[in-house]
Amino acid sequence: MSAIPVYNVKGEKTGEIAVDPTLFDKAVRRGLLKEALIAHLASQRQGTHATKSRAFVAGGGRKPWRQKGTGRARQGSTRSPQWVGGGHAHSRKPRDYAYQLPVGQRRVALLSSLRYRLEKSGIFAVEGLELSAPKTKSVAGFLSGAGIGGKGALIVSEGHQPNLYLSTRNIPKVGVSERRNLNAGEVLTHANLVFTKDAIEALVKELKG
């Protein structure tokens, strides 16, 4: 059995939740986690890179000199790739790098990533973080008190909590996700995983069921 520490909003430890690691996965599937991480990072790429080919560079409509008799190499345009100011021979075009693993693999990868974080003592739970208004100071104080301030953390809530999102957007290396939207890529790119108590209890209940 492994223990997930539970903290209050002040960063004080109030208890522990005992969890069997095999509830997530029998073992950490490193090969699958690598594929899930690559897919996640590929999906973050904007893919807006672009360079101009000779078709998109202005000028060069006139042949620079006649074909024969000058002693120079033949040239058809001053915007050919070999000319300064010419277009790129193999121009880059915008593209979408995103791709997804099959649904079954994504679910297994998520559970395996949770097992990995649990083995690394990177899963925490917090109670009382249901904010009635945006309070960055409260979230920052909790992270500092729990010893994970500045180390990167993903806070996982059970439902949509806009105030929690607004409270964390100015804190470096901290993100917020709903449990239903959690994926292996997010788990692997954050050193610590902080579940609200409702979220961790719902997750454990779902896996046991």
The count of domains is 2
The helix-strand sequence is EEHHEHEHEHEH
Largest sheet: 6 strands, mixed
What class do helices, strands and sheet pairing give? alpha/beta
In the predicted model, the low-confidence regions spanning at least 5 consecutive residues are none
Reading off the top of the CATH hierarchy, the class of the largest domain is best stated as: Alpha Beta
What proportion of the residues form beta strands (DSSP E)?
Answer: 15-25%
| Gap between N and C termini | 18 Å
CA-atom Rg in angstroms:
26 Å
Beta strands, count: 6
What's the arrangement of strands in the largest beta sheet?
Answer: 2-1-3-6-4-5
What is the CATH architecture term of the largest domain? 3-Layer(aba) Sandwich
CATH H level of the largest domain: which superfamily?
Ribosomal protein L4/L1
**Shape verdict:** elongated
Structure overview:
It is a single chain. The chain has 2 domains: 154 residues, 3-Layer(aba) Sandwich (Ribosomal Protein L4, Chain: A), CATH 3.40.1370; 44 residues, no CATH class. 32% of the residues lie in helices and 15% in strands. The chain contains 6 helices and 6 strands; from the N terminus they run E-E-H-H-E-H-E-H-E-H-E-H. Helix 1 crosses helix 2 and helix 3 packs across helix 4. It is elongated, with a radius of gyration of 26 Å. The model has no long low-confidence stretch (mean pLDDT 94).
Concise summary:
The protein is α/β, with parallel strands linked by helices and about 210 residues long. About 30% of the residues lie in helices and about 15% in strands.
